[in-house]
Amino acid sequence: MRFLPTEIPEVLLIEPQVFGDSRGFFMETWHAAKFAAAGLDLNFVQDNHSKSIQATLRGLHYQISKPQGKLVRVISGEVFDVAVDLRKSSPTFGRWVGDILSAENNKMLWVPPGFAHGFYVLSPEAEFVYKCTELYAPEHERCIRWDDPELGITWPLQVQAPLLSAKDLAGASLAEAELYP
Description:
Elements: E1 2-5, E2 12-15, E3 18-21, E4 24-27, H1 32-37, E5 46-53, E6 57-63, E7 70-76, E8 78-85, E9 96-102, E10 108-111, E11 115-121, E12 125-132, E13 141-143, H2 166-169
Antiparallel strand pairs: 1-2, 2-10, 3-4, 5-12, 6-11, 6-13, 7-10, 7-12, 8-9, 8-11
């Protein structure tokens, strides 16, 4: 497994080693000792799986209390995945990183606690799976607008208006949002 730093050092792009032949492939997507050796000594408590159609944008989500670290990957299709630093004390506060995750490239992204997370579906549909370090707590869930000009995320939109949930439509701006210290 390769653990590659992004422009925000705590967010890592992970490339698993894929062993393939004419029958298919095999890869490790989680190995506690290898992650710990890379500085990620994690305890996952919940796995999630979502399926979305093209042009769906989910995010930018985070939990203000009991923040979740997320190890995310795509098992079908392709998405543009984004992490935003919401830690006011961080030198990278308000900055974002994004990358294309797909079933073909097998890349994973580590989104640490203290970050908002979102993704945009590029393929006709996509299945997205992620491991979380904290349980989902809807009473602590918050959302920042995907199109907040202060963040300036360069989403590779294929349509003028992405498909959004009511929760995502009602997201706060970064200036109005509850943030981490």
